[in-house]
Write a structure and sequence with these properties.
alpha/beta, FAD/NAD(P)-binding domain, 2 domains, five-stranded parallel β-sheet, 18 helices, globular
């Protein structure tokens, strides 16, 4: 590691090097990464745009926001003391508790002193002459570092709607990602929610219980399955603590890093009646059992997926009183589970309430937002509050908001214009000394996030330690190695029905220029965690083959 104020010589000019490593983002990944770095003696800092740490659990404060991972599988596993001390109160913990957990971790290990808040990164340029990155902040500061580590988050670039008149609305309005930190009074209010995706299915039931009138503007219906949340008492928490090793070992061998393992007994080895009985059991289980614990064929075979989708469609019909309304809530353009399944509590029953109404935008699109509400082609809906659950510019959006330039001043946004190209979702050819934690195409992108993140942080830390121990100061993947990974990504997509989904898994977002038409962008590694880590271990065992090190 370098000493404070060291000067890196290049040609006839010397440049101050402020840090060995800068981490951008103080979410789940950034918190663990800074701990590993400072424990090993790296001079490192975290630059966080928000007013505090927490990442998604700092920003997303909308009512109903919570884990879809079992709480005890989401927390960090690297400290036995932490595992012994923390008591998860719910099977699927809520945002306030998750934020408290991450704050507890940071305070326990004295990590805040290594973090800079409200530090918005606007640019990061690589200086090939001196082998360093210059990071520019919104406040005008510039900071130099040898290694740049991004922990930007998968869904951190919110996409507001692009309807005419959005700025004219005189009531309260915001994207769910920017839900106010102060309490919002919903009682007696006419509330409109635009969107019915993963966020909205958590939000809508809670708003319906408080608002005088809730109007849901549905762009496209989404499949959803019951969360089945519940409290975790002292006795159950003690039992969980006693088998943490078993829990984390199970997560490490499942494709998604959850407790739920795909059923490999064979779809066709069971009769339709037996399959339906099995699905009834899975549907009644907490969490992702009905999705990730199902027959493997439901992810890859059109007929198997159609049969499962019909089962879930019948469940929606059973839960919604109005048959015509139920049909509007059933997706017709994709099958169940070909994209991440939102988990819900009484979402479908919410539409049985007298104070809730669905507006189907496929029939009557929104024309504009007015001073007092939303105008569709059929009516004007008067509203006091509008909530935009309109999604995210997933995976690459947070990178596009930073002017990242590599060798020769080449812009990352240009390289990724048609979709990301990476080496294991960790590195990018032409952008030396840049490492991404849970970057696009990584093994963490579609998994139970902390389970993949911990392995990713450990790999990155070991790699940087290797560089220091051997006197290396520069690395980047070879062009051939990057193309080989991109080819493998395309191969994995070809095997899965997700290739047909209009979701962030494939880069679709109607609110992002160039992403509206469903051109496939290979964002997530869907070969499963175990396969991903085996392949990355091969890279390590081959003395980091595929990476140019100098």
């Amino acid at each position: 590691m370098t000493e404070q104020g060291v000067r890196v010589d290049g040609g006839s000019v010397a440049v101050a090097l402020d840090y060995d490593a800068i981490v951008i983002g103080a979410g789940v990944a950034g918190i663990y990464q800074i701990k590993r770095l400072v424990d090993l003696g790296f001079r490192a800092t975290v630059l966080e745009a928000g007013g505090d740490l927490g990442g998604t659990w700092y920003w997303n404060r909308y009512p109903g926001c919570r884990f879809d991972s079992e709480s005890y599988t989401y927390g960090y596993s690297w400290s036995q003391e932490l595992l012994d001390e923390w008591h998860w109160k719910e099977r699927f913990s809520s945002q306030p508790e998750n934020y408290r957990y991450l704050s507890y971790v940071a305070d326990k290990f004295d990590l805040r002193r290594h973090m800079q808040f409200e530090a918005v990164v606007t640019a990061a340029h690589y200086d090939d002459d001196h082998g360093l990155w210059t990071v520019t902040l919104e406040d005008g500061r510039t900071i130099t570092t040898r290694f740049l580590i991004t922990a930007l988050g998968l869904l951190s670039a919110a996409t507001p709607p692009r309807y005419p008149g959005v700025d004219t609305f005189q009531g309260q309005s915001w994207h769910t990602y920017y839900w106010p930190h102060e309490p919002v009074e919903l009682a007696g209010k006419r509330v409109g929610v635009v969107g019915t995706g993963a966020t909205a299915v958590q939000l809508i039931p809670v708003v319906a219980e408080q608002a005088e009138q809730l109007t849901v503007f549905q762009r496209r219906p989404n499949w959803a399955a019951p969360l089945h949340n519940g409290p975790i008492g002292d006795a159950e928490m003690a039992e969980i603590r006693s088998r943490y090793d078993e829990i984390f070992e199970r997560c490490s061998r499942t494709p998604g890093g959850f407790e739920h393992e795909p059923d490999r007994r064979g779809f066709t080895n069971f009769s339709p009646e037996e399959r339906r009985a099995y699905w009834e059991e899975l549907y009644a289980m907490p969490g992702f059992g009905i999705w990730l614990g199902n027959f493997r064929e439901t992810f890859m075979d059109e007929e198997a997926n159609a049969e499962l989708s019909a089962f879930i469609a019948d469940k929606i019909r059973d839960r919604v009183d109005d048959p015509e309304l139920a049909e509007k809530l059933i997706p017709k353009d994709h099958g169940f589970g070909v994209q991440r399944v939102p988990l819900e509590t009484n979402y479908f029953e919410t539409y049985n309430r007298d104070n809730v109404r669905l507006v189907d935008l496929s029939e009557t699109p929104i024309e504009c937002i007015t001073e007092s509400g939303i105008r569709t082609t059929a009516e004007h809906v008067e509203l006091d509050i509008i909530v935009y659950a309109t999604g995210f510019d997933a995976m690459t959006g947070a990178y596009d908001r930073i002017d990242i330039r590599g060798v020769g001043g080449h812009r990352l946004a240009d390289k990724w214009a048609d979709g990301p190209s990476t080496f294991f979702g960790l590195m990018i050819h032409g952008f030396p000394n840049l490492v991404m934690l849970a970057g696009p195409q990584s093994g963490s992108a579609s998994s139970n996030f902390p389970r993949g993140i911990e392995k990713g942080v450990d790999w990155v830390t070991d790699f940087l330690t290797y560089l220091n121990e051997h006197g290396h100061t520069r690395f980047q993947p070879t062009e051939d190695a990057e193309e080989a990974w991109s080819s493998h990504m395309r191969e994995m997509y070809s095997m899965m029905l997700m290739r047909n989904a209009k979701s962030w898994f494939t880069g679709y977002n109607s609110n992002v220029d160039g992403h509206e038409h469903g051109k496939t962008r290979y964002f997530v590694y869907n070969g499963g965690g175990p396969r991903y880590w085996r392949k990355l271990d091969e890279v390590t065992g081959d003395d980091y083959g595929g990476i140019d090190i100098a």
